[in-house]
Specification:
Layout: H1 3-11, E1 14-15, E2 20-21, E3 25-33, E4 38-39, E5 44-53, E6 58-61, E7 64-66, E8 70-73, E9 78-81, E10 84-86, E11 100-103, E12 108-111, E13 114-116, E14 121-123, E15 128-132, E16 135-136, E17 139-140, E18 143-144, E19 147-149, E20 154-155, E21 160-161, E22 166-167, E23 172-173, E24 178-179, E25 188-192, E26 195-200, H2 203-210
Parallel strand pairs: 1-3, 2-4, 3-5, 4-6, 5-7, 5-8, 6-9, 7-10, 8-11, 9-12, 10-13, 11-14, 12-15, 13-16, 14-19, 15-20, 16-21, 19-22, 20-23, 21-24, 23-25
Antiparallel strand pairs: 17-18, 25-26
């Protein structure tokens, strides 16, 4: 494959062993791709100052990851298809911002989700943003607030997370919920418009947050 040596020679990217890159565009100021990463066709990873992708991560097809100071995708992650992860360039805001997107080890983003990281968006380890058509945004007119998703959280389809929204570790967020604040209690079912804590997770909910996101996930994730 010619792309790997070209990226190394022409742009100074650090590209590991057994990396597969399809018909995609990668354009970052600095780029580090670890071993055994797979990037499918028609992805656009552009305009980011620092892009890093951890080992054994898979990026599917037709994803856009654009802008910001840093995009950090951890080990054994999956970003499937039709996702847009975007930071507004030079936003007109009145507060300090930290335009970073961090996807923790073993986390999964499925299909057709939109994530704005004009301010920091951080997913913990083994988070699942499942289903389709959820949106997370950090900016609201001239102000921004970061978003945090805790380890092993499971987020269903059609979720909306407003600036400053926070989901604690090991929580399940029900379909169609709107997160408008920072929650604090772990092991909860969160649902509704606006969302609220409904109940402790039962056995079914615990199964969702404990189940491995990939069969080959190492024991340390």
């Amino acid at each position: 494959m010619l792309k790997r040596p070209l990226y190394r020679l022409m742009f100074g990217y650090k590209v590991g062993k057994r990396v597969r890159i399809g018909f995609s565009i990668i354009d970052a100021r600095e780029c580090m791709i670890a071993d055994n990463v797979s990037i499918g066709h028609f992805n656009f990873l552009v305009g980011t100052k620092l892009l890093s992708i951890g080992e054994h991560t898979r990026i599917g097809h037709l994803n856009i990851i654009r802008g910001g100071d840093e995009v950090r995708i951890g080990r054994y992650c999956e970003v499937l298809r039709w996702n847009e992860i975007n930071s507004i360039p030079d936003p007109d805001v009145v507060n300090p911002i930290e335009p970073k997107f961090i996807l923790g080890d073993g986390s999964v983003i499925t299909a057709s989700h939109k994530i704005d990281f004009t301010d920091r968006v951080e997913f913990g380890k083994r988070v699942i943003l499942g289903g389709r058509n959820s949106s997370l945004w950090t900016h609201n007119r001239q102000m921004t607030r970061p978003i945090e998703i805790g380890d092993q959280a499971y987020i269903g389809s059609e979720i909306r997370v407003a600036p400053g929204g926070s989901i604690p570790p090991r929580c399940v967020v029900g379909i169609g919920s709107v997160i408008t604040k920072a929650f604090s209690a772990e092991n909860m079912l969160i649902a509704g418009v606006p969302a609220k804590e409904i109940k402790d997770l039962g056995e079914d909910g615990a199964f969702l947050v404990e189940y491995k996101t990939r069969k080959d996930l190492p024991a340390d994730i």
